[in-house]
Amino acid sequence: MNKKIIIWVVINTMIISSCNVIKPFFIKNKKKEARQEKRVEKKIEKGKIDSAIVKKELPAILPKFDTILARKIINYRNINYKTFQAKTKMHYESGDQKQNFNANFRLEKNTKIWASISGFGIEVARALITPDSVKAIDRFNKRYYLYGYKDLQKLINMEVSFKILQDIIVGNSIATDGKITDMKELNYLMSIFIVNDDYSNQFTYNRTDSTLKQFQLQTTRSVSKSSVLVSLNNYQLLENNFLSTDRTYYIQDVKGAAQLNMEVNKIDIDKPIDFPFSIPANFKKAMK
Questions:
Q1: Could you say which DSSP state residue 210 is in?
Q2: I need a labelling partner for 16 at 20 to 30 A (CA). Which of 55, 61, 165, 192 fits?
Q3: pTM for the full predicted model
Q4: Is pLDDT above 80 for 266?
Q5: What pLDDT, in 10s, does the model give residues 67-84?
Q6: What is the distance between the alpha carbons of residues 36 and 243, in angstroms, rounded to a whole number?
């Protein structure tokens, strides 16, 4: 697993895309969604969950440019947590490269992100990310990496912040600052469009339960235009939060395209966690 893949996985797909606009699309698995709806209905009948939490339908008619309503919709399904843990299976493709691996994440909100990447049951990389720096070790090549965010921006050709990284891992909406320019409806879906000086973003929601189905972020900087399309599916209810357990990230830039599929197998919220990280004495510092 090379340096770019390690860093790319550590920040969990927050890279680049190109001037090409990726057309929005929706991945549906009707049988899976039907099974999930039945499970939720049974839990409501047994009184295990509050139906008001699940059924959050969007308005039948959306007033145009109602920014207060739009902000409420964007923020409604964002996951609130103090600590967050997730075990995932990943499939990565870029050009001729194809790799399957596991990635485990631990987060203390606004403080730390810990990531461990493994293949065939063996850990190959580990990272500790804070609001100030990124530290990573490559066990296979016995190397370690120390990055500031400016270094990361040069490496992946995109502005990165700690908040964006944690929201991407958790599955929250990102890049929501800016002017809301439009709100559109199409059958069971609703889209909100946001534009600011650096990017444009389109959020698409399921009108039935207000879950985020996808977002399409495109930078507008003339120097290095880029975009990323994220599709979120198979939502599960956990401690009054809806969490997407099946996600696909499509990224493309002037250097090429990449895709990451993430299957989330286990999630824990607000459980005690630690962040073990140390650099072995025999590891050498990698060149930036």
A1: -
A2: 192
A3: 0.75
A4: yes
A5: 788 888 888 888 989 999
A6: 13
